[in-house]
UniProtKB/TrEMBL annotation:
<feature type="domain" description="GP-PDE">
    <location>
        <begin position="3"/>
        <end position="239"/>
    </location>
</feature>
<dbReference type="InterPro" id="IPR030395">
    <property type="entry name" value="GP_PDE_dom"/>
</dbReference>
<dbReference type="InterPro" id="IPR017946">
    <property type="entry name" value="PLC-like_Pdiesterase_TIM-brl"/>
</dbReference>
<dbReference type="Pfam" id="PF03009">
    <property type="entry name" value="GDPD"/>
</dbReference>
<protein>
    <submittedName>
        <fullName>Glycerophosphodiester phosphodiesterase</fullName>
    </submittedName>
</protein>
């Protein structure tokens, strides 16, 4: 099977990460899937942003957990990247699911609960994905091993992937023991043995964040199941020439 290409936070090399313009651009570039990060506002609304604080990617200050959805929606999440994107806002998960619903895209929703434990985040996201009927096209991922257990307790309709940036003795076995269906591994930990182990255990191995040509090529050669990249157009082009 060909290595799937996921636009990391949308086409974030060319547009402000985790915004609708970044998702739209990735779609137009022909990406197979989109990766995005989710956190909860003060009033419990799932929104798409990578950092726990809004400072780096908006014109505001503070933690997402301390801001209401209305306050979050007022922030400009585009102009930090370029004035061309002024007015882009932080999308809600719902807005994103509505947009993706009728598109042939795979989605990877990363639960950002390794620093802040958002109460009920797993169930909120899980139920919303089910409500849109996207369970077959979706993987929930997290760096938090306890969260994998929570997801699998909710149900088995949506696959769960453990994210890892630590050199576990055997990352595939570690993820499998938690009940994870897939492993999303940092590029520097990715090697032939992880792929082999993943294939033996029937566990997809996807690699983040892969932007350099040489690294993309290595992932293609070693047959990673997927890569997360900020430059989906480059990865698609490279994959085309690799398989031709
Ligand atoms: O899901 C892959 C990747 O996004 C994990 O790291 O920090 O970019 O969210 P991060
Ligand atoms: Mg992420």
């Amino acid at each position: 099977m060909k290595t799937a290409i996921f636009a990391h936070r949308g086409a974030s090399g060319y547009s402000p990460e985790n915004t609708m313009p970044a998702f739209q651009l990735a779609y137009e570039m022909g990406t197979d899937g989109i990766e995005t990060d989710v956190q909860l506002t003060k009033d419990g609304i799932p929104v798409l942003i990578h950092d726990e604080q809004v400072k780096r990617t908006t014109n505001g200050r503070g933690y997402i957990k301390d801001l209401t959805f209305e306050e979050v929606k007022r922030l400009d999440a585009g102009s930090w990247f370029s004035s061309r994107f002024t007015g882009a806002s932080i999308p809600s998960l719902e807005e994103f699911l509505e947009w993706i619903e009728d598109k042939p895209l795979y989605l990877n929703i990363e639960l950002k609960n390794n620093k802040i434990e958002y109460s009920n985040l797993e169930a909120i996201v899980y139920d919303m994905v089910l409500r849109y009927g996207l369970q077959q096209h979706c993987t929930l991922s997290t760096f938090n091993p306890e969260s994998i257990k929570k997801i699998k307790k909710i149900g088995t309709s949506i696959s769960a992937a453990l994210l890892t940036s630590k050199a576990e003795v055997n990352p595939v076995t570690f993820a499998g023991n938690l009940g994870a269906d897939a492993i999303h591994i940092k590029y520097r930990l990715f090697d032939e043995s992880v792929v082999k182990e993943g294939k033996t255990k029937g566990m997809p191995v996807r690699v983040y964040t892969v932007n350099k040509s040489a690294h993309i090529l290595r992932c293609l050669k070693l047959q990673a199941d997927g890569i997360f990249t900020d430059l989906p157009d480059k990865a698609i082009e490279q994959r085309q020439s690799f398989y031709n």
